[in-house]
Design goal:
The chain is an alpha+beta fold. The protein has one domain: Creatinase/methionine aminopeptidase superfamily (Creatine Amidinohydrolase, Alpha-Beta Complex). Helix content is 28%, strand content 25%. The chain has a five-stranded antiparallel β-sheet. Strands 1, 2, 4 and 5 form a four-stranded antiparallel β-sheet that branches. The longest helix is centred in the first third of the chain and has 24 residues. Bound molecules: 2-amino-4-trifluoromethylsulfanyl-butyric acid and cobalt (II) ion (CO).
Length: 252
């Protein structure tokens, strides 16, 4: 069941998501060769607590950290580690908060120092695909119109969409209905309505779409060792347009 949110609830979800976006902005500035992702995890947790918010992922189904930090061929749910980042790596940071009854959830992928042309193109394509998906989140469209827009853009660029993980509704729970695949034919699924709030999150591999999970039970990596990028926004569907909630100043 897809839970519709009132304007008042959407404002609360916005509050949580603005804080998520602020924290991701601060983390992005710290990313550089030599820093380790466990340090970034610690910083993210401090920044959440300073804002009287609770990191949403820590303890969620036993996930042990506040931040998901996925490097290079890690797709999502990477464990922060003491291993320093190096020039040319790409890092996906996925962060969520719970504040005043509602969740925020967003992710970005950034390069560490100078990255390869392939890595740049992968990150750019994934972010563009997210925005093309968001554009389809309008009343009257169907859910898979979002999915299809994302998949088309990614595959036209010669990359592949991860199928194993999907986007989701969000609100009083981190994961609500519907599940939002990043692939599929258009015109299928529920009809989109004002008041729906979604976390849309394409995960894109430079090689094949297959992923596997490491021994830690969480870290997803590409089967073929290829690079992977991930971007996520929480958005609300309004009367005639989508609005991005996980942004500090309206830009992303
Ligand atoms: N953005 C991811 C998701 O919505 C992050 C979840 S990490 C977890 O699935 F640890 F909370 F599972
Ligand atoms: Co999410």
């Amino acid at each position: 069941m897809v839970i519709l949110k009132s304007p008042r609830e959407i404002e609360k979800i916005r509050r949580s998501n603005i804080m998520v976006a602020e924290i991701l902005e601060i983390l992005k500035e710290k990313v550089a060769p030599g820093i380790d992702t466990l340090t970034l995890d610690n910083i993210s947790e401090q920044l959440a607590l300073q804002r009287k918010a609770r990191p949403a992922f820590k303890g969620y189904r036993g996930y042990p950290y506040s931040l998901c930090a996925s490097v290079n061929d890690q797709v999502v749910h990477g464990f922060p580690s003491k291993h320093p980042l190096k020039e040319g790596d790409i890092l996906s940071m996925d962060f969520g908060l719970y504040y005043d009854g509602y969740y925020g959830d967003a992710a970005v992928t950034v390069g560490v120092g100078k990255t390869s042309e392939l890595a740049e193109r992968l990150m750019k394509t994934t972010k563009e695909a997210l925005f093309l998906g968001i554009e389809q989140a309008v009343p009257g469209n169907r859910l898979s119109d979002i999915s299809h827009a994302i998949q088309s853009h990614v595959e036209a660029a010669g990359f592949s969409i991860v199928r194993k993980f999907v986007g989701h509704g969000i609100g009083k729970a981190l994961h609500e209905d519907p599940q939002i695949p990043n692939y599929g034919k258009p015109g299928v699924g529920i009809r989109l309505k004002p008041g729906m709030v979604f976390a849309i999150e394409p995960m894109v591999n430079a090689g094949g779409h297959e992923v596997e999970t490491l021994q830690d039970g969480w870290t997803a990596v590409t089967n073929d060792g290829s690079l992977s990028a991930h971007f996520e926004h929480t958005i609300a569907i309004m009367e005639d347009s989508p609005v991005i909630l996980s942004t500090v100043d309206g830009t992303a």
